[in-house]
């Protein structure tokens, strides 16, 4: 089984549309792990993608509070070690960033859980010992440092953009050349990795998202 991990940002959108245009093979499913904190523009873009892709798109979400709800809880209560965003903080008089656990807990493992369902593996049941799924990840050549093997033996990670030697700008150029809309940047509205320019754009053009980020 071939699964596209669909973040609905530039790179994974390019992969999905390349598959739709038969530039690369088509996956059996695309899975969007919804953190509950994506920008409004990403959800609108995903709505459009679902209308043009020739394969099913599954929206999956972690049980319990969304990442936005968890973020507010962490901000107002003693710090826990549960799926924390990498907040800038001061601990024992030292400035720094907390470890990034949110992507693994709210994205990677959500996709993994959905794959188990597609394979018919019941909760707590044993998964296959050998690879049963090829998972496609939208990592381009300028992000090659993010390439990591799967944490489970029954999933093999693959990076088609790396194989094609495509970087993020190449993705943007391909989308424009093929008359597709420019994909938004996929990251939570309150992500500490957002730049000042991205926050200013949110403040000026996406007031609802800005209000949530301030909260």
Give a short synopsis of this structure.
With 215 residues, the chain is α/β, with parallel strands linked by helices. It contains eight helices and seven strands. The protein has helices at residues 10-20, 40-52, 67-76, 102-118, 160-163, 168-177, 196-205, 207-214, and strands spanning 2-5, 29-33, 57-60, 88-91, 94-97, 133-137, 155-158.
List the helices and strands and how they pair.
Blueprint: E1 2-5, H1 10-20, E2 29-33, H2 40-52, E3 57-60, H3 67-76, E4 88-91, E5 94-97, H4 102-118, E6 133-137, E7 155-158, H5 160-163, H6 168-177, H7 196-205, H8 207-214
Parallel strand pairs: 1-2, 1-6, 2-3, 6-7
Antiparallel strand pairs: 4-5
Describe the structure.
The protein has 215 residues and is an alpha/beta fold. The protein has one domain (2-63, 103-214): HUPs (Rossmann fold). 39% of the residues lie in helices and 14% in strands. The protein has 8 helices and 7 strands; from the N terminus they run βαβαβαββαββαααα. The protein has helices spanning 10-20, 40-52, 67-76, 102-118, 160-163, 168-177, 196-205, 207-214, and strands at 2-5, 29-33, 57-60, 88-91, 94-97, 133-137, 155-158. The strands form 2 sheets. The chain has a 5-stranded parallel beta sheet with strand order 3-2-1-6-7. Helix 1 links the parallel strand 1 and strand 2. Helix 1 packs across helix 6 (168-177) and helix 7 (196-205) crosses helix 8. The radius of gyration is 18 Å and the shape is globular. It starts with a strand and ends with a helix. The model has no long low-confidence stretch (mean pLDDT 90).
């Amino acid at each position: 089984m071939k699964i596209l991990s669909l973040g609905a940002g530039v790179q994974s959108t390019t992969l999905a549309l390349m598959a739709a245009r038969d530039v690369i093979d088509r996956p059996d499913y695309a899975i969007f792990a919804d953190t509950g904190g994506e920008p409004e523009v990403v959800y609108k873009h995903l709505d459009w993608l679902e209308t043009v892709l020739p394969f099913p798109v599954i929206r999956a979400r972690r049980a319990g509070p969304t990442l936005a709800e968890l973020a507010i809880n962490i901000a107002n209560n003693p710090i826990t070690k549960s799926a924390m965003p990498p907040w800038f903080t001061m601990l024992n008089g030292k400035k720094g960033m907390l470890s990034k656990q949110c992507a693994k807990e709210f994205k990677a493992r959500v996709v993994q859980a959905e794959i188990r369902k597609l394979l018919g593996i019941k909760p707590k049941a044993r998964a296959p010992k050998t690879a049963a799924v090829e998972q496609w990840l939208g990592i381009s050549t300028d992000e090659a440092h993010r390439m990591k093997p799967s944490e489970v033996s029954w999933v093999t990670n693959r990076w088609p953009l790396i194989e094609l030697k495509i970087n993020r700008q190449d993705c943007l150029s391909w989308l424009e050349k093929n008359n597709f809309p420019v994909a938004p940047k996929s990251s939570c509205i309150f992500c500490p990795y957002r730049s000042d320019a991205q926050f200013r754009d949110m403040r000026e053009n996406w007031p609802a998202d800005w209000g949530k980020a301030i909260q």
